[in-house]
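[Meeting: bench + compute handoff]

Bench side (C.D.) handed over the final construct sequence. Compute side (W.E.) agreed to return the predicted structure before the next meeting so the bench team could plan truncations. Sequence as handed over:
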Amino acid sequence: MNEFLFLLCFLFTSRTDEVAQVAAKNGVPAIQVVYVKNGKTEEYCVGVRRAGETDSITGNSIFQAASLTKVVTAYAFFRLYDRGLIHPDTALSRYYSYDRLQNEPRGKLITARMVLTHRSGLQNWEGPVGQPAWYQTPLHLQFDPGTRYSYSGEGFYYLQRVMEKITGKPLREIIREEVLQPFGMLHSDMQWNERLFTDYAYGHDSIDRARKLGKWSYTNAAYTLYTTAADYTRFIQNGLLAGGGLKPSTHQLMTGKAAEAQKEAGVTTAQDRQVPCALGMRLQYNEKGAWIWHTGSNPGFRCFFIAHLKTGESLATFNNSETGMPVFNELLHLFLEKGQHFPAYTWREGEMD
């Protein structure tokens, strides 16, 4: 603890200390937390950007959002849907012929709804993702599209290619126009931005072992968003909860129950039913009602958000350590009202996105 410099981003000293204790307990060098309730926002930033150094994390420090990127991609998809450019139940092959699926006839059946609910049949990743060889790696379906749940980043990249085809724009530009600019996300981009990113967190394998700074030079719809907890909260509050920029019916479609999730192939348990899929994110049903949520895991980073669909309460947090997953459970119990359980954490615990 003594090696850390703590920066108070909002004047709630006792809770800042509690957040610091959670970070230290779980071997996390730095953490950002933004909590919103009843229109009031609390922001906490604790720790250092890189182990062994003294530069404190700030509210503007950039983190990798990992799979929280998928939710932003999904929102952008629905912006295009509202313009009549794409439909969630039309086969993606009608819009774009994906060469990596040329030897998989069943791939022609995949729709955006299947991708957004992880029922495409595609593996999470097939081949060395992000490397030149990956772009030519053939894809193989694990099961008939639409028949069951299996988490897939490959599906989101396929959707990215379709969105780029129908708009004639790279996804980075689509996200900037449809999400980042409208919601004032001034510290965010879909790939590394040398000009913009001057304050950033390093990923860590453990509390004292920093990783090389990861600078994605490409855009991937599943995991390359760089952002802050404050910026992402703007997206949660204005896009996901308020439905800004979407038709009311589209907002309801995106955030409503769309399919069951299954931890075990082909089996839907009682716990699965507490955390079904919305379109591009997950739902949680507990004692306080319906919430939306998602987790993210990139090498050296862990992130999480949860938001109540009716009250607008939200919690978003980013940390920079492989050991940071249990932080989410402790923050849920620290910030959110007592007397409820959180299947969003217990279902996902220990899992990688």
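W.E. noted at the follow-up: Confidence is low (pLDDT under 50) at residues 1-8. C.D. will use this when planning the next construct.
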